[in-house]
Amino acid sequence: LLAAIFGVGYWWLVVRWKPPPSIFDDPVDDVLGYLAIDDFSQMPLEDRMAFLLEFSDRFRGMEQTDSAAMAAFLAGVSGPAREQMTQNARVLAKDILVDGAETYMNLPESERAAFMDEWTVKWMRMGGRLTDGEEDERTDEEMLTDMREDAREGEQDRDDRRSGFPTLTQTNAAGFLGFWQSEVEVAASPKEQGQILRFMVDLRKHFAQ
Known about the structure:
single chain; mainly alpha; 11 helices; disordered N terminus
């Protein structure tokens, strides 16, 4: 039995699962190629985000040869590889939301507001690092204040619209989730969809109040 367990473990680690390449040492097409296989989605969420952060750092400092290699790789990605890359992005978005939703649902009511603030600031800062490579200079409270102002303005804008733009109410959650739901739901189980829906609706209400 012990030999069988070790055998399964060896098969999974060495044969089945391919570890991520070195962001700064391996060729850029090897790094990009990892984003187009299912192994990327098998990594823990924290490891995937670290991988993307390091890749974005390399992308910003990319030499001309790397830039040309990346353009050639992306131009050649098609069929199953392109779909897997898209699926990996869906799974990443789903896992980010599920991680927040599961934690939120397991908290007592008195701790949920603070968690929504903390979760939102965390992922806003992470998004800034990925896109700009720099930390947001605003304090947490400044970021939350801006978020609340944006949410209230968004609510007012939606109230002013006549048709074709669904309001973000609990009974019209599909409009509320928009792009997120249309992309994430295909990668989420029914239970995860329900958790995400509840979490996102409560987030919207929290920041719009």
